[in-house]
Every structure is written in C-alpha cells, then in structure tokens.
Amino acid sequence: MFNKKLKLNLYVIASLLFGLKTYIIYRFLFNISLENAMQEFILFINPFVTAFLVLAISVWMKPKKQLRFIRWATLIGTLVLYFNLLFYRNFGDFLTIPVFFQGSNAADLGGSILALIELGDLLLLLDVALVWYLSRRDHLELTVSFTRKKQLLVFSMSIIFLLGNYILAEIERPQLLQRGFDREYLVKNIGLFNFHIYDIIQQSRSQAQRVFADGNELSGIIDYVEQNTTDTEQTDMYGIAEGKNVIFIWLESLQTFVINNTLHGEEVTPFLNSLIDESYYFENFYHQTEQGKTADSEFIVENSLYPLPSGAAYFTHSSNAYHSMPQILDEAGYTTAIFHANNGSFWNRNSMYETLGIDHFYDIDSYEVNSQNSVGWGLKDKEFFEQSMKYLTSLPEPYYSRFITLTNHHPFDLDEEDATIDQFDSNSRTLNQYFQTVRYLDEAVEEFFDHLKETGVYDNSIIVLMGDHYGISDFHNRAMSMYLDKEEITDYDHIQLQRVPFYIHVPGQEGKVISEVAGQVDVKPTLLHLLGVDDSNDISFGTNLFGPNRKEFVALRDGSFITNQYIFTKDSCYDRETGELLGNENTGRFGSDEEVEESACAPLIEKVQEELSYSDRIIYGDLFRFHDFSN
Ligand code: GP9
Ligand code: MN
Fold first, then answer.
1. Residue-wise over 481-510: b if at least 16 C-beta within 10 A, else e?
2. Of 33 and 53, which is predicted with more confidence?
3. CA angle centred on 187, ends 183 and 192, rounded to 5°
4. 465 by DSSP, 3-state: which?
5. Distance from the alpha carbon of residue 582 to the mean position of ligand 1, in angstroms
6. Using CB atoms within 10 A as the burial measure, which of 80, 170, 233, 254 is most buried?
7. Where are the beta strands (DSSP E) in 138-267?
C-alpha cells in the first residue's frame, strides 16, 4: 500500500510520550507540593529533558539497535516510575538505593503491596505499548543512519536541555544538590531519574567515607556532644527504677492524634487514655525516623543517634561498632531480649541485634502462628503478648525487654470479629481502617498489662510505651483533614502529626503529663537515668528528659525541627502552639532566604544541620570503632 515509507523519528516520539506520562505521574499521582509558577514549570520540563537525554543516545547506534534500545528504555523507565509510585503510595517517599536493596523486606510486604496496586495503573503502559507497536510496523521508517553532524547536534541539544533544567533548578533552589536531604525537592527539580543517579553517587561516597575515616574526627564530635546534649546532672528521678525490669512496648504506627480523641462519639484508645493518669506521659514527643521506619525507631532509641538520611542503618551499617543501650545495660547486669513475631531477617534484625548486644531474640519461630490467629502482617497482637509471657517469665532478672507489635500496620486489615469500633468514613480506606486496628492495639496492650499483673511481673518492672512512626502518610491528607476537621493539612500540621505517644509507667507512681518537646533520641539517656545506670561516657544526641538542661530542639531527619516555641519546616517558621506563620504574613510564605534568616527559627537552622551531620559521620565513618567507652 505504502510505496514510500513514512519517516518518523521514534526517539522523538518516545521522548514526548514518556515525558508526558512522567509529568502526569508527578503532577497527579505523587503528592508533590508546588509553591509557584516556576516550580510548576520546572516540574513540567524536567521529564521531557530526561526522556530526551536517554532516548537520544539511540542516534549513536546502528539502525537495528535503535529500535530495541528505545523499546527497552521506555519499558525499564516505566518500571522505575512504577516501583517508585508503589513505594510512594505506602510511604509518601521515593525509593533510594539502600531501600531498593532491602529487597527481602519488599518480599515480606506481600499483602501491603497488593493493596497499593490499582487497576488504572495499567494505563501507565500505554506509551510503552504504542512504542512497541509502532516499532513493529514496516511501513514506517523509524530508524535512520544519522550523520556525524546530526549525532553531534542531537547530543548538544540534550546537554543544553539538561543544563537549562539544572540552572533553573539552581535559581529556584540554591545549593540543591549539596542540600539534597529532601528527596521531594530533588525529584521536583531534577526529576526522578536524575535523582536516582544522584542517590547512587551519594551512596558510593558514603561507602568511601568509612574507608577514609580516622579516629581524630571523633574529638570534635565529642566536644559538641559535651557542650550541647549531655546533661549529667542527677535529679530526684535518678535511679527511681533501679534494678527493675524494663518492659518496652513498641506501638506500631501509633500516632498521638488518636490519643484522647474520639470517633463516632467513642474514645479510640480508652486504655491508653486512662494510662496517662498513671504515667509520665509526653504529649509533645516526636518520632525521628526516616526510610527505615520501625528499624529507624529502634536504631534511634538504642543508640541515641539519628537515622540515616536514606536507607536504614540496620541494613547498611549493621557491622559498625555501637555503644547501645542493651550493651550498657548488659554491663550493668541486665538480660536483654526482643520479642517480635516476624521473620528474624526482616530489617536485618538478626544481624543488627547481635551487633547491638541483645541476648535473646524471640522471632516468628518462637510463636505458634496459624491462619486463625493471624491477620495482615502476621500474628495478632493479643496472641503475641499472650504467647510471649512464658518466655518473659523465664528470663533472668533484671531484664530489658522490647515487644514489637504488628497488627496496627498498613494496610490496617482486621478480622471482623476483632473490630470493636466502626470504621471512619472517608475516601481513604487506609485511614478508615486505621481506627479499628488502633483500637485493637489499645485492647491488646490492656490485656498485656493484665498478664503482667497476673504473673507478678508488673510490680517489679517499669513499662515504657512508644509509637514507632506515623501510620498515616501525607497521601491521605484529604481524609485526615476531614477527621481533624481542618480545611487542609498544612506543613505545620504535617509536623504536628509526627507526634507519637510516649509513656513511662512506673507502677505505684502517679506520673504526670509533660508538655515540653521531646524526641526518640532522648529515650536512651532518660531510661538510663531512671534505672540509675551511669552513662556519662556515652556519645549521644539525646538528653535526659527529666534533667534541668534539656537540649532546646527536637531535630527531624529532613532538617525540620521543633522547640518549645517554634516549629521550623520547609523554610518556614511557625509558632509551635498556634501554628501561626512567623514572618511574611502577606504571602503566608517567606519570600527570600534573608527573611528566613531574620525569622525566629534562624539561630537553630545551621545547628540542627550540624548535629545531624555529626551523627552521620559517626555512622558512615564507623567512628565508634576507634573509641574506648570504658574510660
Ligand atoms: C516488621 C515490622 C514493621 O517486622 O516491624 O516494619 P515497618 O514497615 O513498620 O518498618
Ligand atoms: Mn513500624
């Protein structure tokens, strides 16, 4: 039919299609915040720039290879986008190399992943299908032997596009690549694919850091810690729990917004609410985790170090030297044990627990798990506590024990017979179900308290409870704003939603509600203080929460921070209690960096960065291997 073949440059068509698709994903499937027209523009161009950069490589190939290259590049590119999308739906964040290589975890995600897949996702394959279809039509001339001149022209064009993109990004966000701790900024300015390349370079650099690290680096860090975070002052709380057992309950995905709150006129967490009256309860306690989620929360609490900016130290730095709370308690005569009814390999716990000096790890193999007594991620929490009792009561005292719960985990599935509160009614199935599994967790903890009392363990122990990290990501902001009866979830609200419950329950003591801000990094020095265990040689970034010289800020991993007066996040400074934006009232945003400098938060912005980077240097350089903590 066609005598003359129709000439089309497939790499151009594929770049346009792939660029457009990527833009649609950025704009409508990821929840990327855009503050001005420039950001909109950069977000629009960067997908095309990247697609062109990659697909234009094909002009250097022989005609036959060009088609194959374009087909596979669009398919692989789509898969990269899609894996990011699935990850984003769960964690509101982008994949990084370390997270990707935690593949064993992804396998265990099972039900969670299925819940994240949507039928409409198939549409993402449209352009790939079209490219494959076109490339098989022989009446279209899609491949050409390009002249050297044309090749060089196409190459120069891709470089000019890339530079243009980068320059715009630098204007919009000075020092973007140096300050790369915020993944969203990176993705929206240079695109997801360039972000991945950036991430690969960062990771290799951090590997090199260990090789070149030397012990002298520690002295500066020790000076900082002594001046800023250490509070060795003894208070009347020192040693109040001396010789007692510690029972530490890790409350999976539990956030503070449900505490003392109601749904359909009912208390969501009746037991945890009542426990406030008999505990030291920290109402402004923030989780400080990053991509390592539960593993990060454990890492922070056990070491009083910050988690890594990407990946989980549990995976990437499990053979480092640490000076963990279990190690310190072990020296003070404690037995240390962890209870968690999941595979021991999840989050690389098996090896990390050994590194941290934990004596016993009761993982899934210690439990009777069957289809009747499990839901979602595995053994139901009530069963978990009940089955744990025989192990707990057999431990030599005093012991430090941690119980990591599981039922209140995304996707928050629960058997009907276990649901004792109705679901919420919103567009988010996740949030709707969350209240039911939270209530279940509340009941499970109450039952655990009963077991502890029945066996007499209770009287000789202190019981600590902590939420590990958020359960409801920003992806559910619409539904969340409905529940909280707010017009929208602002950046300020986002930070306040990072509060998780923290209780120290000392049987026989009244306790009180403590409103000063606190974070997970403070748990280690606080517990050691209550147990009367000397930690004056420790190098840690937290401060004893009962001491007079508390550090003034709680740093979050992305550089946001909270003080008793202020909250700083995304370049804006807010009054902590009212949420009022301090600074530019007209625009509701700070216009320039100078204005940020003048804001009330300014004196701490650098300091928080400094502290985070000290913690990173300890971990990346494995610096504790050079230090003797015993003197
Ligand atoms: C897995 C459990 C959940 O063992 O601790 O981990 P998370 O997904 O919350 O990090
Ligand atoms: Mn968790």
1. bbbeeeeebbbbbbbbbbbbbbbbbbbeee
2. 53
3. 115
4. strand
5. 37
6. 254
7. 140-141, 245-251, 262-263, 266-267
> Would you give the DSSP letter of residue 173?
S
Residue nearest ligand 1's atom 5 by CA: 294
Neighbours of ion ligand 2 (CB under 5 A): 252, 293-294, 468
Give the span between the Cα atoms of 326 and 334, in whole angstroms: 8
Strand partners, 337: 360, 401
Nearest to 231 by CA among 524, 494, 432: 524
User: Can the peptide bond before residue 507 be classed as cis, meaning omega within 30 degrees of 0?
Assistant: no
Residue 585 CB neighbour total at 10 angstroms: 8
Nearest to 95 by CA among 200, 204, 23, 207: 200
For residue 293, the ligand 1 atom closest to its alpha carbon is 10
In this structure, what DSSP letter does residue 418 have?
G
| Cβ atoms of 420 and 204 closer than 8 Å | no
pLDDT tens sequence across 316-359: 898 899 999 999 999 999 999 999 999 888 888 988 999 999 99
At 586 the pLDDT is 38
Select the more confidently predicted residue: 301 or 584.
301
Q: How far is the CA of 496 from the centre of ligand 2 (A)?
A: 19
Q: Any residues with CB less than 8 A from the CB of 602 and at least 6 apart, and which?
A: 573, 596
Residue partners of 263: CB distance under 8 A and separation at least 6: 421, 422, 424, 435, 483
Q: What is the mean pLDDT of residues 261-267?
A: 98
- How far, in Å, from the CA of 299 to the mean position of ligand 1? 13
Residues in the chain: 631
Domains of the chain: 6-208 (no CATH), 217-626 (3.40.720.10)
Percent of the chain with pLDDT over 70: 93
Residue 519 pLDDT > 70: yes
Nearest CA to ligand 1 atom 3: 294
pLDDT tens digits, residue range 357-396? Answer: 999 999 999 999 999 999 999 999 999 999 999 999 999 9
pLDDT at residue 5, rounded to an integer? 62
Residues with CB under 6 A from ligand 1: 293-294, 342, 346-347, 404, 406, 409
Active site residues: 294
**DSSP state, residue 422:** P
Please say if the pLDDT value at position 182 is more than 80: no
Q: Which H or E run contains 445?
A: helix 429-454
What does the block give as tokens for 280? Answer: 């030291």
* DSSP letter string, 493-506: HHHHTTB--EEEE-
Rounded to 10 deg, the angle between the 523-531 and 293-303 helix axes is 50
- Rounded to the nearest 10°, the torsion over CA 446, 451, 456, 460 is -50
Q: What sections of 28-182 are H helices per DSSP?
A: 37-55, 63-91, 97-100, 103-109, 111-116, 126-134, 148-172
Task: Say how far apart CA 444 and CA 407 lie, in whole Å.
Answer: 10
